[in-house]
């Protein structure tokens, strides 16, 4: 762990930024837990320095909280010379949880993980209560963000009732060529590489590729996904699991499983970006130490077996001291960024039981 990466930051009082404030406050907590020197930086509102510093990730939690005042069937460009519906409402899990909320919750966790590593994260929608834009508008927002990678999060559905036979994740890649030459070359190259990196991260985390819909080793080829047909930055379209399948639905609906998915997605993005062309380094300010953050710890913690029980224990902690003791038991070599991300996950999903 790098001492320079742990910064003293102010917490934010407002409810709008409460979630961010939780993460920032916990960075300090994590730093003191592992007895690292904390750099005094009174105005440190900038993203954390880390292995993803200088990288931008566009995150698109599929669907929206509400379509009130908008017409889902409005026809928009499909990226193949035709049109398709602006949006759909998304699926509902057999647990009763809506797909748009599952996508939103996991996207928030991924955002925490990426920001803890220094990435800039641009979201396709601002909340899980209102409208989030048509598929073509979201693709255009991804293009405008100039992200290194755009990731759309979805969960599939195969029947109205329970479907015990079909389960697992898949990444949807576009059938090629796509008419737009830039889209075709980006998605055939880095888009495919990013999708395979995501598939591999899911497998490393213990998730199984889908056993249905012609999915081959976690990859499905389709022509009708506007999010990739219209996106000129490398795009990954994730179907995390099948919400009709009771086991997938349970994992995607609950905190422990959601955290494991979020860590797998964060790791998939990290491992793709590790192979993608890096931006030019930003010169250090005079006297500023090079953080030299090693991001490998997050990878090591990705397995559900390692993270799940700890998150459950942390969620059950009734005092800050208890949480600190649990974290200390994990060993002093766990990076502050990872602790921050994990605690942000716990607070986000469990509503923040600890005093902050
Ligand atoms: Zn969906």
From TrEMBL:
InterPro entries referenced in this protein's UniProt entry, alphabetically: MurNAc-LAA_cat, N-acetylmuramoyl_amidase_3
SUPFAM superfamilies to which the protein is assigned, alphabetical: Zn-dependent exopeptidases (SSF53187)
GO MF terms held by the record: N-acetylmuramoyl-L-alanine amidase activity
Keywords: Hydrolase
Domain MurNAc-LAA: 139-270
Renumbered residue ranges of the record's region Disordered: 57-86
One term under GO cellular component: outer membrane-bounded periplasmic space
Pfam family, one: Amidase_3
Transmembrane segments: none
Coiled coil, from the record: none
Record-given protein name: MurNAc-LAA domain-containing protein
Protein species of origin: Gordonia hirsuta DSM 44140 = NBRC 16056
High-level lineage: Bacteria, Bacillati, Actinomycetota, Actinomycetes, Mycobacteriales
């Amino acid at each position: 762990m790098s001492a320079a990466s742990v910064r003293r930051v102010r917490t934010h009082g407002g409810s709008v930024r409460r979630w961010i404030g939780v993460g920032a406050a916990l960075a300090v907590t994590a730093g003191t837990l592992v007895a690292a020197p904390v750099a005094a930086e009174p105005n440190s509102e900038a993203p954390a320095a880390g292995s993803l510093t200088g990288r931008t990730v566009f995150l698109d939690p599929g669907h929206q909280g509400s379509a009130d005042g908008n017409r889902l069937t409005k026809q928009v460009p499909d990226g193949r010379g035709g049109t398709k519906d602006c949006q759909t409402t998304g699926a509902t899990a057999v647990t009763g949880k809506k797909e748009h909320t599952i996508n939103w919750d996991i996207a928030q966790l991924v955002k925490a993980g990426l920001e803890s590593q220094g990435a800039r994260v641009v979201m396709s929608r601002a909340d899980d209560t209102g409208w989030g834009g048509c598929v073509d508008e979201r693709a255009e927002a991804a293009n405008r963000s100039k992200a290194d990678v755009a990731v759309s999060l979805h969960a599939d559905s195969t029947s109205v009732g329970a479907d015990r036979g079909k389960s697992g994740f898949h990444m949807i890649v576009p059938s090629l060529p796509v008419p737009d030459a830039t889209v075709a070359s980006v998605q055939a190259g880095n888009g495919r590489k990013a999708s395979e990196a995501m598939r591999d991260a899911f497998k490393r985390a213990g998730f199984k590729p889908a056993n249905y819909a012609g999915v081959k080793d976690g990859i499905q080829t389709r022509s009708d996904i506007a999010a990739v047909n219209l996106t000129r930055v490398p795009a990954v379209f994730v179907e995390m699991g099948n919400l009709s399948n009771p086991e997938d639905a349970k994992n995607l609906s609950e905190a422990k499983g959601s955290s494991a998915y979020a860590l797998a997605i964060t790791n998939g993005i990290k491992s793709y970006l590790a192979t993608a062309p890096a931006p030019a380094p930003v010169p250090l300010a005079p006297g500023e130490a090079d953080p030299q953050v090693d991001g490998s710890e997050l990878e090591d913690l990705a397995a559900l077996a390692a993270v799940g029980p700890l998150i459950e224990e942390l969620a059950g902690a009734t005092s800050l001291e208890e949480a600190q003791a649990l974290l200390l038991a994990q060993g002093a070599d766990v990076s502050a960024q990872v602790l921050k991300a994990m605690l942000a996950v716990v607070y986000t999903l469990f509503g923040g039981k600890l005093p902050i």
